[in-house]
């Protein structure tokens, strides 16, 4: 998720298991542990300049960097791999790989054996990190600008060792393409599987940890639809609201029992997936048969719980560690520098447990 700088933040990303998040800033890069909240390291402006995108590889020493902001040291058309384990005080000693293109890089995704780089209408997949070579190249529908302050490089990559699934926008409006990188021969143009998910352009997409379910929302932002990645069948339809909104983030809980979503309305919604009876339904659903015009509205499932963050501040959200069997938590990280943790129960109670300003938390050591 990216947005115009507030307090110097240009983009935010969780790592693959959502235990850390990285913060690209006008002043460099910061890496934080989520629970407990603490800064794990930083790269200052002298080392890397202002940054547009940062992506972590789990909790390893490798970072993918893309320049951006008002005083970049690196180009927005290049992805540089920073290896903090390498010795040397000069930043050049830490930069071990570079991928350069002809258009700006919109997103980067990594797993232990591959790196995915997203451009406006093309996606590249390379072997990684040893002896990188291009494995695949996919043409896509133009990655949309869903909001003037929110440029998207739509793509998600399953981190599971058992499944190498990649999802990105299809050529048809509102469609998703799924590619199993493990069963596709490198250098070939094997046709991906297509899911016709929405009537308008896709604005947000996310895979669960094992890669068995994909969730997506369109630019309209009222509905989130979940599909089985094997059968391509729709599993459930979740309603965020009735007013259009820009969705910034969708994430699954670690066991796929819940899903959370954030938008420009300043609300983080929490849905039940394992037991969908926990989700709220329209009061009209108890009336019985209704006309076709409102049938979809009545049948939709609404969030079981929600909480608000500053509406003018975009955020990413993810699930925290469970404190007990019946108490779960959601973390929201905002570009205004604030950290929010809410706990919720299956009956829909949702209360704030922690608040902090992560930009005020400093670590004396470099990353």
TrEMBL record:
GO BP: any one term: autophagy
Keyword Repeat attached: yes
A Pfam entry, by short name: PROPPIN
Subunit structure: Interacts with WIPI1. Interacts with WIPI2. Interacts with ATG2A and ATG2B. Interacts with ULK1. May interact with the PRKAA1, PRKAA2, PRKAB1 and PRKAG1 subunits of the AMPK kinase. May interact with NUDC.
Lineage of the species this protein comes from: Eukaryota, Metazoa, Chordata, Craniata, Vertebrata
Biological function: Component of the autophagy machinery that controls the major intracellular degradation process by which cytoplasmic materials are packaged into autophagosomes and delivered to lysosomes for degradation. Binds phosphatidylinositol 3-phosphate (PtdIns3P). Activated by the STK11/AMPK signaling pathway upon starvation, WDR45 is involved in autophagosome assembly downstream of WIPI2, regulating the size of forming autophagosomes.
Any single GO CC term annotated in Swiss-Prot or TrEMBL for this entry: phagophore assembly site
Gene3D superfamilies for the chain: YVTN repeat-like/Quinoprotein amine dehydrogenase
Superkingdom field: Eukaryota
Name of the featured protein: WD repeat domain phosphoinositide-interacting protein 4
InterPro entries linked to this entry: PROPPIN, WD40/YVTN_repeat-like_dom_sf, WD40_repeat_dom_sf, WD40_rpt
Similarity comment: family membership: Belongs to the WD repeat PROPPIN family.
Main location: other
Assigned keywords, A-Z: Autophagy, Lipid-binding, Repeat, WD repeat
Compartments, record wording: Preautophagosomal structure
GO molecular function terms attached to this record: lipid binding
């Amino acid at each position: 998720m990216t947005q115009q700088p507030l307090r110097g933040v240009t983009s935010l990303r969780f790592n693959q298991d959502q235990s850390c998040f990285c913060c690209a800033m006008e002043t460099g890069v910061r890496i934080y542990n989520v629970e407990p909240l603490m800064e794990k390291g930083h790269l200052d402006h002298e080392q890397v300049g202002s940054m547009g995108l940062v992506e972590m590889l789990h909790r390893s020493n490798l970072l993918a960097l893309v320049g951006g902001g008002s005083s970049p040291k690196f180009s927005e058309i290049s992805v540089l791999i920073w290896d903090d384990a390498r010795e040397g005080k000069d930043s050049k000693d830490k930069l071990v790989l570079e991928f350069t293109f002809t258009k700006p890089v919109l997103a980067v995704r990594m797993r232990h054996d591959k790196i995915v780089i997203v451009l406006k209408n093309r996606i590249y997949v390379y072997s990684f990190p040893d002896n990188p070579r291009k494995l695949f190249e996919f043409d896509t529908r133009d990655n949309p600008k869903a909001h003037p302050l929110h440029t998207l490089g739509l793509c998600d990559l399953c981190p599971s060792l058992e499944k190498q699934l990649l999802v990105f926008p299809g050529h048809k409006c509102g469609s998703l393409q799924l590619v199993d990188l493990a069963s596709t021969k490198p250098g070939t143009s094997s046709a991906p599987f297509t899911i016709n998910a929405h009537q308008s352009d896709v604005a947000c997409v996310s895979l669960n940890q094992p890669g068995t379910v994909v969730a997506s929302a369109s630019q309209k932002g009222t509905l989130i639809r979940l599909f089985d990645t094997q059968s391509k069948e729709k599993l459930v339809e979740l309603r965020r609201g009735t007013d259009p909104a820009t969705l910034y983030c969708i994430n699954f809980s670690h066991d796929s029992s819940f899903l959370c979503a954030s938008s420009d309305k300043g609300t983080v919604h929490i849905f039940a997936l394992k037991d969908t009876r926990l989700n709220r339904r329209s009061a009209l659903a108890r009336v019985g048969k209704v006309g076709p015009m409102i049938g979809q509205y009545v049948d939709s499932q609404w969030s079981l719980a929600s909480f608000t963050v500053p509406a003018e501040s975009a955020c990413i959200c993810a699930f925290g560690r469970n404190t007990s069997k019946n108490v779960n938590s959601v973390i929201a990280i905002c570009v205004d520098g604030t950290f929010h943790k809410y706990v919720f129960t299956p009956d829909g109670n949702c209360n704030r447990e922690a608040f902090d300003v992560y930009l005020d938390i400093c670590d004396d050591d470099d990353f």
